[in-house]
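User: quick one, sequence for these tokens?
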């Protein structure tokens, strides 16, 4: 009889632990889903790229500016875009690339000489730099 009582306590304790673990898993799952929903809602969709306070329509960029190809990717030249936006001496300046989700990276002008923006992806590609500097869903380029 004593053995049966101990077995019931162990089973009850094990069931309680499983319940706690299930509740924790549910909280983590809800938190992850909430983060995904928040990110999707806070991502700004735009058909405009702002460069040095000048607005560019994504549709016109490909027509008006020279294209660069690198390792199978094609896009508009960052240097040509910045010069068109009125930036003088691009190599001696620094730039902040800002994505729709708020992600931002600062890059010295000397490192963007062969950089470009892939129009279809709205992505800054900087060959020779870590991919952490390749900002996707770009909405603005600031001169700093």
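Assistant:
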């Amino acid at each position: 009889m004593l053995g049966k009582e101990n077995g019931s306590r162990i089973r009850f304790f094990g069931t309680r632990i499983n319940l706690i673990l299930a509740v924790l898993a549910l909280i983590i799952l809800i938190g992850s889903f909430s983060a995904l929903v928040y990110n999707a809602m806070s991502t700004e969709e735009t058909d405009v790229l702002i460069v040095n306070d000048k607005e560019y329509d994504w549709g016109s960029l490909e027509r008006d500016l020279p294209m660069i190809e690198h390792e199978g990717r094609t896009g508009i030249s960052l240097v040509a875009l910045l010069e068109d936006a009125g930036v003088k001496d691009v190599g001696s300046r620094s730039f902040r690339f800002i994505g729709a989700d708020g992600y931002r990276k600062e890059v010295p002008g000397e490192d963007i000489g062969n950089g470009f923006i892939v129009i279809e992806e709205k992505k800054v590609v900087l060959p020779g730099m870590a991919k952490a500097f390749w900002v996707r869903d770009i909405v603005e380029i600031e001169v700093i």
